[in-house]
Amino acid sequence: MSDDLEVKNEDQETAEISEISKMGYQLLKENKVAEAIDCFSKILLVDENNNYALVGMGDATRKRGSCREAVTFYQRCLAHHPGNNYALFGLADCYKALNQYHKAIEIWEQYLLHDDKNITVLTRVADAYRKVRDFKHSKAIYLRVLEMEGSNPYAIIGLGHLHYDFKEYRDALLYWEKMLQFNPENVDIRVLTSIGNCHRKLKTFESGIPYFERALQKEASNFYALFGLADCYRGMNHQEHSLEYWNRILVQDPRNKVILTRAGDAYRSLNEYVQAQEYYERALNIEFDTYAVLGLALVAKSQGKYEEAATSLKRLIQQDNKNYRLFVELSDCHLKKGDRRQARETLEEFQKLGIRNACVAEMLDSL
Fold first, then answer.
1. Would residue 242 be called left, alpha or beta, if left means φ above 0 and alpha means ψ between -120 and 50 degrees?
2. Do residues 192 and 173 touch, judged by C-beta distance below 8 A?
3. What is the predicted pLDDT for the residue at 2?
4. Is 31 left (phi over 0), alpha (psi -120 to 50) or beta?
5. How far apart are CA 310 and CA 295, in angstroms?
6. Across residues 97-120, what is the average pLDDT?
């Protein structure tokens, strides 16, 4: 009789744990993380190694952004329930979120021992290999996914990113354009900016412009589209058009010193020196910037203030003596002052560093 009672109590306890567990996962789905944690904690008070509760605690703490805490729950689960797929999946995602890609790869590969055709896991492993710059393994896994599912967007996008990261822009373009073919009417804005960026890197600026413009139609304040358009027009030497987009970025982000110096460069190219100087100084008010100081030196040079420009350039060379452009501009200042000997010696000083540069060599030949 007592044995029957024991079995009955155990069955009741198991049923109660199962119900609480279901409730916890339902609360997680509804984003009620604190309530879900309460449910899983109740289970762990009764059964400290319960796999559902440990995975649930891992999922809940990960959802709350506490990946390090989540790792401990997944590891506890795996210590008592080796090969638990949900714990492996969660643990790998935590390592990925913590930028520990090698550990994530190791865990996902353990998962694949149980399920080697899981496309979600395969694309994540390929992504992780891409993050650690392992081109060969990353590409092989993405292509394996495409063999299983020819139009898998994650693999195609991953291959686009992979080739782009390794400066293989033409190959990247092929994959991004494939994404465009799948959904030409409602294409993701990131696909449009990625295609535009490939053209920007290939210096086919005119071809990139329509993609950035389409991206702006979807989201008028998109930074990547605005930057892409500004940079394309800059590459085409249409500085007045580039300024429109540099300034639109600055409306959103007035303290972006990179954009301030780019806008300053555009004003300088248009001989609007007062505006150029204002933008360079705004950049320098944020923090020191080599290109802003160089911009001011070039404004001074354009205004015939060669001594002032030369002084600034010499200071920059002390901080960055491998930047050939500083030597070329300083040499040109000496030349404008009529001092050919000093102009030549400046370029020779750069060559003594053992760095070969075509611009320096050409200018030296002309002297």
1. alpha
2. no
3. 41
4. left
5. 12
6. 92
